Amino acid sequence: MSERRERATARGAVGRWVPGVAAVTTYRRRWLGKDVVAGLVLSSLLVPQGMAYAELAGLPPITGLYTTVFGLLGYAVFGASRILVVGPDSSLGPMIAAVLVATIGSGGDPAVAVGLASMLGLLVGLTMAVAGVAKLGFIADLLSKPTQIGYMNGLAVTIFVSQLPKLCGFSVDADGLIGEASGFVRGLANGDAVPAACVVGLVTLAIIVALQRWLPKVPAVLLAVGAAIATTSVLGLGDRGVDVVGPLPAGLPPLTMPHASWSQLVLLLGGAVGITVVSLTDTISTASSFAARTGQEVRADQEMIGVGAANVAASFFQGFPVSTSGSRTAVAEQSGARSQLTGVVGAAVILVMLVLAPNLLRNLPQPALAAVVIAASLSLADLPGTARLWRHRRLEFVVCLTAFLGVALLGVLPGIGVAVGISVLNVFRRVWWPYQTELRRTPGLPGYHDVRSYPAAEHLPGLVIFRFDAPLIFANARVFRDQVRRLARSRERPVWIVLAAEPVTDVDTTAGDMLGPLIDQLAAHGTALVWAELKDPVRRKLDRYGLTPAIGPEHFFATLDEAVGAYRARTGAGWAAPGEESPVEGDAHPRPT
C-alpha cells in the first residue's frame, strides 16, 4: 500500500510539471470523437493564419506551418490548459519583423532571417519557462488594461496599414506607420495597384468579416481562402499579375540548432524581452478567460512553462515565437474540444498535408493572406473599450492614447517600451499623489465619511480625521507632511489630527525620518498626531524607528470610534454642523497628552 501511494505521488509530481503525462493517464474515451472533429476544424484555421502571420513577421509562409505544428506539440506536453491553442500570433508578427530588421536590415537573406527568428523563439521560450519556474507571472501586470488597449489599437493600425499594399498587389519600400501609409497612397496614385489583386484581396476580406459578424460558427477564414485559391486557379490570376504562394517545400523541416553571433544575440535578447512581456500578458488573460468559462483553475506559472516549451520546440524546426490565440482557442471550444488532443490532431493534419499534398496551397494568392492578416488586425482593436475609458476616466484614456501613439509613431518595439513605462509610471503616480481627504460623521450613516461626498457632515471642534490612501514611502512622504501641516494651520487649529491609517500598509525609513520632526513640530503648537486602525506590522515598524515614544502610546487606537470616543472624553466636545461650534464640558482645546 505504501509503495502504491509513493507511485501515485510520483505520478502526481510528474503530472504537475508535465501536464501532458497526466492528460494521457486521465483521458476519457468518450472525448476522442469530439477532439478529432475539433482538431480537423481547427486545422482549417491554422493553415492560412500560420502562413499569413509568418509573412507578417517577414518570413517565408512555410515557416508559419512549421511553427504551428511544433508549437502545438510542445504545448500539448507542458501546457496546463485543456483547450488553449498556441501558434503564430498577429500581435507578435510586427515585433518579430522589427527585431529581424534591426538585426540584419530590411531585405536580408530569407535563410538568415529564418535562423535568427528561430534563435529569437528559443530566447523567448527560455525566458518564458524561467519566468514560469520562478513564478514571475506578475510581470504580466506591467501592462495595465488601458495600456493594453492603447497598445493593441496601435498594433491594429500598424498591421492594417502595412498590409494594404500587399492587399492591392504591390509593395512599398518604407518603414513606420507614416512612411508606409504615404507609400501606399503614392503607389495608388502612380497606378501600381493590380486590379485583379485588389478584387481578390477585398472580396476575401469582405467574406471573412461578413461571416465572422453574422455566421460566427462558420469557418470564415477557410471558406474565404478556399474561394480565393479556387478563383485564382480557374481564372489563372497568377498569370495576370497576382502574386501567389507557389509550391511549398515537401516533407518535414530538419532539426536545426538555432544560432547567432554575439552582436546579433544582444539585439535578439532585447526583442525577446518585449515579446515575452506581450506574450505573458496575452497568455495569462486568455487562459483566465477560458478557464472561467470551463470551470478550470488557472495555473499561470505552468501556462508560462507550456508556452515557453512551445517556443523552444518550434525554434528547433525553423519556427519563430508563438503565443496563445484567443480566436483559435474559441474555435476549438466551439467545435467541442475536450483536451490538448485537439491541437495534436491539428498538427497531424498539417504534417500530412506537408508530406502528401505540398502543392495544395500553391495557388493561394498573397492578397488573400493580406486579407487574413487585416481581418485579424481588426479584431485586435478595441474601440468600445477606448470609448468607455473616455466616458469613465479621462486620465486612463490619456494613458491609452499615449500607448497608441507610442506604437503608431515610434514603432512596435519602442511602443511596447512606452506602454510598459506608462503603466509603471501610472502606478507610481497613484502612490506619489494618492487620494487624501478629511472624514466626518453623517447622521443616519454608520462610520465616518468623505467630506467631498458629504459636505454637510458633522465635525468635532478641535478634531480632524485625515485619511491618506497609500503606504507612506519616500515618494509621498513630502506630500503627506505638507498636507498634515496645512491641516494643522487651519483657522481652527486642531488639538488632534487622527490619521485613519488602515490604507497605510507600510512606512519606510524615509517616511519614518519625516514623521519624527513632523510630530515634534505639531506638538510645539499644541497638536497631536493620533493613529487609528494601524496594522500591527506597520505599528512594529514605528516601534523599530523609535517613533512610539514621540507619538505617545496613548495615541494609538484600534478603531476610529475609539479615537473619537477618547477625544470626546478628554475634551467634552460635541458634534456640530459645518461652521458651527458646539458646547463643551471644560476646555475644548487642551494641550495634547
UniProtKB/TrEMBL annotation:
Keyword Transmembrane helix annotated: yes
Subcellular location: Membrane
Domain STAS, chain residue ranges per copy: 453-567
CDD domains assigned to the protein according to its UniProt record, in alphabetical order: STAS_SulP_like_sulfate_transporter
Gene Ontology BP terms: transmembrane transport
SUPFAM superfamilies xrefs: SpoIIaa-like (SSF52091)
Main location: membrane
Pfam families: STAS, Sulfate_transp
Keywords: Membrane, Transmembrane, Transmembrane helix
Lineage: superkingdom: Bacteria
Membrane topology of this protein: Multi-pass membrane protein
Stretch list, region Disordered: 574-593
Matching InterPro entries: SLC26A/SulP_dom, SLC26A/SulP_fam, STAS_dom, STAS_dom_sf
TM spans (from-to): 36-53, 65-85, 92-108, 114-138, 150-172, 192-211, 218-238, 262-280, 341-361, 367-385, 397-425
A GO CC term assigned to this protein in UniProt: membrane
Name the UniProt record assigns to this protein: Transporter
Species per Swiss-Prot/TrEMBL record: Actinoplanes nipponensis
